[in-house]
Amino acid sequence: MSRKYNEEELKQWCQEWEVCDHDGKVEMCQRAGITYDTGKHRYSDAPVELKNKPRMQVSATELLEMPSRVHLDFVCFDIETSNLNADFSILLSACIKPYGQDAIVFRADDYPTWADNRDDDAGITRDISIELRKHAIVVGHYSQRFDIPYFRAKMMKHGLEPLPPMFGIDTWRIAKNNFKVSSRRLDNLLNYFDLGAKHGVTGRLWMKAAYTNSREAMNEIVEHNIADVVLLEKLMCRSFPYVRSIPRL
After folding, report:
1. Do the beta carbons of residue 93 and residue 107 sit within 8 Å?
2. 71 with 87: CB under 8 angstroms?
3. What rounded mean pLDDT belongs to the chain?
4. By CB distance 3.0 to 4.6 Å, which of 11, 22, 63, 106 could disulfide with 50?
5. Which residues sit opposite 128 in a β-bridge?
6. Which CATH number describes the domain made up of 71-242?
7. β-strand pairing of 91-98 with 167-170
């Protein structure tokens, strides 16, 4: 039986629990000689005043003090899906591009379920989650209205642990708040700021990638996905002076 914690020890437990990812929480429980379920209850049953209240912004000091298991970097994140709603579609591909590095690519047709059970996107969702949670700040375009909510829905569907405390920058929102342009779509912003052109993909190709076993169609979807995060990084670099705060995802 585990011993009772005094108030100061319980407060320290709550603070560490709040910043740890799933593996870190498991390590905490192992050190304390308790099960993971007991650790969850210890945190959930603790008085509210001992827990950190979530805030919508992060200071530079807080960012630098994040656990060492998190890379203190920016990653550009973009997903490609067969439809805009998680319950009516599957993940086709995703790219996570750490700043200044090559994109890390995930594609659904690399998984064994693709051939005869295409609606099972648990594997790709899990692997994207494992990589994404390593990073501190996620950059996307319209990501806080599409990519992140879509991906969260998939994670919950497949019983995955929620993402740890992370922060997000949405270049669509930066454009909305700062630039009077005719469209805040990524392709229009890239064109106007002379940053390059998006790789076009036709609806027919999207259908082939989602509903047939066409490796060639998926290759083009993935090429489009990689190009998007490369161009997104360029837009982020140009837009960064207009970032006034970094909200939580």
Report:
1. yes
2. no
3. 88
4. 11
5. none
6. 3.30.420.10
7. unpaired
